[in-house]
Request: fold
Amino acid sequence: MAKWFQCMKVVWSNLMVYKTNFILQSISPLFVFLFIKASLWTAIYKGAERVEIGGYDLNQMLTYHLWIMVVTLISIGAISQDLSQDIRLGRITAYLIYPFSLFEFHFSGFLARQSVKLAIALFTLFGVVLALKLPLSVTSGGWAILLALWAGLFWFFLNYFFGLLGFWLEETWTLGVMSQVITYFLSGAIIPLELYPLWMQKILFFTPFPYIGFVPVKLIMGSEVALAQAFAVLTLWIAFIALCGYGLYKRGLRLYTAAGM
Amino acid sequence: MIHAQGVFKEFRLYKKEAGFKGSLKAFFSRQFEIKRAIAPLDLEIQRGEIIGLLGPNGAGKTTLMKMLTGIIVPSGGRLSVLGCEPAQRLKYFRQRIALVMGQKSQLWWDLPAMDSFLLIQKYYEIPPKAFKDRVEELSDLLRVSAYLNVHVRKLSLGERMKVELMASLLHEPEVLFLDEPTIGLDLLSQKNIRDFLFQYHQKRNPTLILTSHYMADIEALAQRVVLIIEGHKRFDGSINKFENLLGHNKTLNFTFAQQIKEFNFFSPYSPRWNAGGKAVEITVPEGELRQVASHILAQYPVTDFSTQKTPIERVLETLLNSPELLKET
Amino acid sequence: MLKQIQQYLSVYQSFVSTSFAESMNFRLHFVLLIVMDLFFYGSAFFTIEIIYNQVTVIGTWNKHQVMFFLAFMLSINQLVMTMTSEAYWRFPELLKSGELDFILLKPVNSLFLTFFRYIRPGSAFNIFFTFPALIYFGVKVDLTPLAWGLLPFFLLFAFLLQSAIDLLIATSMFWMLEGTGMNFLRMEFQQMSRWPDFIYPGLFRNLFSFGVPILLIGSGPIRFLFNPNDFIPFVAMLGACFLLWVLVALFWKKGLRAYESASS
Reply:
């Protein structure tokens, strides 16, 4: 446990040194994204001279996107190139010798970044609730944060999986960007999922995407959500991708040690 | 050719205390201090000379080279290389110099060296005929013809260094800067690089400025050495003069048949005994060489002996340990 | 002068062929680059499709007008992805490792050598998607013959303005310890410029048109193409283009003086 904490401390102190990087990479994109969407939707409502689109009036739409920002702050991380770089430059050899595995190292780094982002998200959440006097039930808010954290875990394992492909691929960042593009689109981060074609909505709820943005936001906004199903689907996906990662690691390591890369 | 007058360079060094608290502090106010990498320095180098730049790690050799090549800008002083101010980076200037760094590569890692050469041909506008001739000539001299079409990342360090050298010589620079060109190479590869540089200099007579931690490189190539310690020039003169800095001493080595018990005779000559007391290295003033040597040969059971000039390595080591031996130059 | 242009063209030709040869070592990456951008284009067009399922106009523009605008911006994006993007990501590494040294030694313009050396042939391939989309929606919005004639030049100007902004951001890395973060700033600006300027509230529209002129990249030329009387943003765009390139030259020179070259 102590070594985990030590490792997290190193990551925190790194975040401090490279604070501009951290802010530009992990925090500010979400604010910019929110700014764009707020402008866009305001313009849409104004142009359409309509009060309601897909069950949202303008205020609700803006609130929706505000919560999307808070939720995705926790559930989606920056694409990390570290792992595949470690592999390519042969730095993972060290972890084959240390009493601290490659996974443990990356996971504690994830926890350290996640804790900072959680703090920022909670701070924003309470700040917004107090400033705008928005209604928020503590239970559904709590479940929403928990679900977002759970989705964050999925995102970590997904990126870990992509990173491990570095055993075979020279560059893996394209996969990260691709997953980000798809996630933004399918998680409801740009447009609430109610506006999507019905057949798409039906399929989507069996994928991990809605639980990364849409579902936690609906929870915060006080809608009824099938919580058990949400956690069940997401957990299955986490287990699946984690297992895939484990298999990939085993095979990659065999390749790595055999080739003495 | 190269004139430097009072050239110096200062860097800003940012400081951070270790640990999380230190990072937090640095977050709010960044502390820095000015570090003087090169103190005001004068240097004159003639066309065709081979200069060995000596000094410990961090002494400022690389900084000096980077100022001479125009990569970094001096903080002050006057500098002229080939009649140009390097920091202006005139095209005329850049076409006439080259820098080889043992620890960095200018070649495209994932391509055969020949592809990089073709790119270099375009950069320097080398006519196709001349390019072809030079590639042939250099690859013969360096014996690398076989690797020119192999991906650079697959070459050994020694092979890569040769190709690296070749890339820097395609445009026939008038001044060639070499920063640790033999670092990390095995003895044979080191010798190959040295021999090549020697031959190339004979043939084309460029000015060579060389740093190396291997004194064999310096001894084999340099006619003149410049010693830099902590940013100050502490010696500038011929290599013979450098070797004689510690006086005109010779080093004698003796091996004996059995352990020597009476060693009073050796004491004045700063003896360095081996662990078993059966071999000794002494330093003898040139004038006493005959007398001391014949005394030892006559009085002790000598099985082997040899003599040599004080090796440049030892001179450097002694000077670094006791810089007070040098007058400020 | 002519000889110099010739030299730079032949250098650039070598960049293309070395980049192509290099990318052939990583064929899967080559394919993934193509697929990645296709996902990106797809989601961008589909987003607009979904919005227009609900409304008939955004601001004053109908669906095809916004689609045409998007196709224009994606074409710029595709050019950036092909010609310069890789270099922006490698630049902090060049600074940190001191490999910029070799660039500074070459008798070729260092800005050109630093930022136009890495070409992504995978992204180049996507020109087969962005340009047809641009033409398709150009037909849909009934561009005049004059507008069709101007379109290639407008693409060029937009690319030049985009590059000037990107280069200014990249140049700041000389003074920053942490270069990679600046690339995200670049991407965030690009993201903002991918929507027509009129969606932004007045204060921000002015800030991002006349302060940091990211909105002029697309909105300048496209508004002019739709309505020749709406020429002010376009003129501003040409002015910004000129001014920013002067700044790029200036800051690059300053940056090189500040460059400390990592030792060994």
Remarks:
- The mean pLDDT of chain C is 93.
- Chain C has one domain: 2-258.
- The interface with chain A takes residues 25-26, 28-29, 32-33, 35-36, 39-40, 43, 46-47, 50-51, 53-60, 176-178, 180-182, 184-185, 187-188, 191-192, 195, 198-201, 204 of chain C (CB under 8 Å).
- Residues 27-54 of chain C form the longest helix (28 residues).
